[in-house]
What we know:
- By secondary structure, this protein is of the alpha/beta class.
- Helix content is 22%, strand content 30%.
- The protein contains nine helices and 26 strands.
- It has helices at 15-27, 49-54, 59-62, 67-72, 134-144, 157-168, 189-201, 299-313, 383-392; strands at residues 7-11, 32-36, 75-78, 83-87, 92-95, 100-102, 105-108, 112-114, 128-129, 149-153, 172-176, 204-207, 212-218, 221-227, 232-234, 237-240, 244-246, 263-264, 276-278, 283-287, 292-294, 325-330, 333-339, 349-355, 360-367, 370-377.
- It has a five-stranded parallel β-sheet.
- β14 and β15 (232-234) form a beta hairpin.
- It starts with 6 loop residues before the first strand and ends in a 14-residue tail after the last helix.
Amino acid sequence: xxxxxxxxxxxxxxxxxxxxxxxxxxxxxxxxxxxxxxxxxxxxxxxxxxxxxxxxxxxxxxxxxxxxxxxxxxxxxxxxxxxxxxxxxxxxxxxxxxxxxxxxxxxxxxxxxxxxxxxxxxxxxxxxxxxxxxxxxxxxxxxxxxxxxxxxxxxxxxxxxxxxxxxxxxxxxxxxxxxxxxxxxxxxxxxxxxxxxxxxxxxxxxxxxxxxxxxxxxxxxxxxxxxxxxxxxxxxxxxxxxxxxxxxxxxxxxxxxxxxxxxxxxxxxxxxxxxxxxxxxxxxxxxxxxxxxxxxxxxxxxxxxxxxxxxxxxxxxxxxxxxxxxxxxxxxxxxxxxxxxxxxxxxxxxxxxxxxxxxxxxxxxxxxxxxxxxxxxxxxxxxxxxxxxxxxxxxxxxxxxxxxxx
Length: 406
């Protein structure tokens, strides 16, 4: 009697989920693959959304897959669909349509949803935007074309991308930071001051220790914001980059699953329940390079997770081993974050170097004497040396750390 084809279900059709589905198909021509997403779109490139709102990337460049391509690959794509429950004992999932699907292996790669601005007058305002999804980018572009002045709130990468995008489109921009500087957990004050210099040079009004306390509305739109120092700023639109809340709800009722910042997995991205895996932004994975758990929602990290989970679903015991990295423009400069930083790990030592004249900044992070991460602004020449130091796992004495940047 012929063996039944394996049934693989993937919740989340972002880059982790789609990569997993396509890797499964490449390695098993007969398996059944169901890919479920709650948006109306197949895979698009979230990294391309900032250039898209600047007018520097076309819609065609943003979208990476079509529904037809999934059909050609034999992947059942279910859009605008949510999974409401995982029955780990029966190995089934329940959909919001009432349909129940069986699985032999299940990947949950549900990512996160943006935190909304909580201030009187903010809720439901038609010109207040988060920046997580393609539909957000479309709405932002529509608003930009009829706006002259914008506010951005938050000290995150998303907030910088919004501030940069608004300025590129010619808007006057006020950027409100709750903390003392941009990325206050990753950069030291000197690094924060360099980012501040770059933003101010490009015309951004920077406000620190400042939050939006009230949104004054007219006809459903915010016309004025009142910030925490009492300043009133008239605006045509607001962008919020206030971090994300991870979509962890499907794990709440599963036994033997540990939830910390994300879903704790081992190096194989297993979550503690047989045949269930986590990947992408939600996975707090065991990082074999630094010997501790790590969580980093980056595009490259998610691709690596998707490939690794697929191989493990197919029975090829494969550990995820890579150094996560995030890159973004800073107007006419550039930032790259590598490996473990204080954003995702505690107890790190740091070594900083700033060259104000060349607008170059490096900050290295060490754990038990080993280099485990870095943030670079401007000059990227040291990145390969830093990658090599992280991979080598060698202890670097304090007096030798400067040599990594020599």
